[in-house]
Amino acid sequence: MASSPDLLFSLRSNFYIGAYQAAINNSDVPGLSQEDAIERDSLVYRSYIAMGSNELVINEVDSSAPTALQAVKMLAVYLSGDKEGAKASIQEWLSDAAIANNPTLRLIAGIIYMHEQDYNEALKYTNAGGTMELFALNVQIFIKMHRSDYAEKQLKIMQQIDEDHTLTQLANAWLNLAVGGSKIQEAYLIFQDFSEKYQMSGKILNGKAVCCMHMGRFDEAEQLLIDALGKNTKDSETLANLVVCSLHLGKSPSRFFGQLKLSNPEHILVKRAAAAEDNFERAMQSVA
């Protein structure tokens, strides 16, 4: 029988690679310390959120729950549509010196402000790092800011702590994709290694597919993305990648784009398409 540390390690790994149902299914870890039990519960609730079950988290986490779980609940509240309410609660807790340094609270603040595309605000809470998840989120934020040099510094810190950590390998793959060129093949090999070591997840399939698209292997990318869609028909990143892949293959992306609009109307691809349509309409009216 696996020990509690091994079971918790497995739960973390499943969550990090996007195998959310596996993380939930294997969350019955006995004999945990209070700190580890809170981490387990945080990862389980975040898995439910990743699968779209925001209401379950909102209903189960009550006001007596630890700070980390309250923060996770606010992520569910935010993603359910009450963005201002969630941000107000997060800001109130961050102004409380007794809990402001809670790593999960800082992580959730960073995630919420990354959703807002307010990267400077996100970095206020994440830049000090302290956990592998915070360092990994910093890598993502700096990539979004087109500052791969800063992302690389964060990655080096992670490599010094644990080069083989799942998040270190993922962050390395993200940075390789951002840098491009010969680094794409290195990113592909990382995702390939994950697919051999862990349960195949939508996140891994998307990672491999994006690498394939960068390398011009669109037929292979399409099959990987279809496999990912089979795991979650509402996953917005899979649908967005299928839109792009379909265009490169000369196929109509309308079905995937329609699904994306329904599942995530706030997705940047949907917003860009809407802006382009508005610009086209204005241009047509000006010459009418």
Automatic annotation (TrEMBL):
Swiss-Prot/TrEMBL GO biological process terms: endoplasmic reticulum to Golgi vesicle-mediated transport; intra-Golgi vesicle-mediated transport; protein transport; retrograde vesicle-mediated transport, Golgi to endoplasmic reticulum
Keyword tRNA processing tagged: no
One Pfam family this sequence matches: Coatomer_E
Subcellular location as annotated: Cytoplasmic vesicle, COPI-coated vesicle membrane; Golgi apparatus membrane
Keyword line: Cytoplasm, Cytoplasmic vesicle, ER-Golgi transport, Golgi apparatus, Membrane, Protein transport, Transport
Record membrane topology: Peripheral membrane protein
Primary location group: membrane
InterPro entries noted in UniProt: Coatomer_esu, TPR-like_helical_dom_sf
Gene Ontology cellular component annotations, sorted alphabetically: COPI vesicle coat; Golgi membrane
Domain of life: Eukaryota
Molecular function terms, GO-annotated: structural molecule activity
Quaternary structure and interacting proteins, as annotated: Oligomeric complex that consists of at least the alpha, beta, beta', gamma, delta, epsilon and zeta subunits.
Family assignment from sequence similarity: Belongs to the COPE family.
Function: The coatomer is a cytosolic protein complex that binds to dilysine motifs and reversibly associates with Golgi non-clathrin-coated vesicles, which further mediate biosynthetic protein transport from the ER, via the Golgi up to the trans Golgi network. The coatomer complex is required for budding from Golgi membranes, and is essential for the retrograde Golgi-to-ER transport of dilysine-tagged proteins.
Stated name of the protein: Coatomer subunit epsilon
Organism of this sequence: Iris pallida (Sweet iris)
Taxonomic placement: Eukaryota, Viridiplantae, Streptophyta, Embryophyta, Tracheophyta
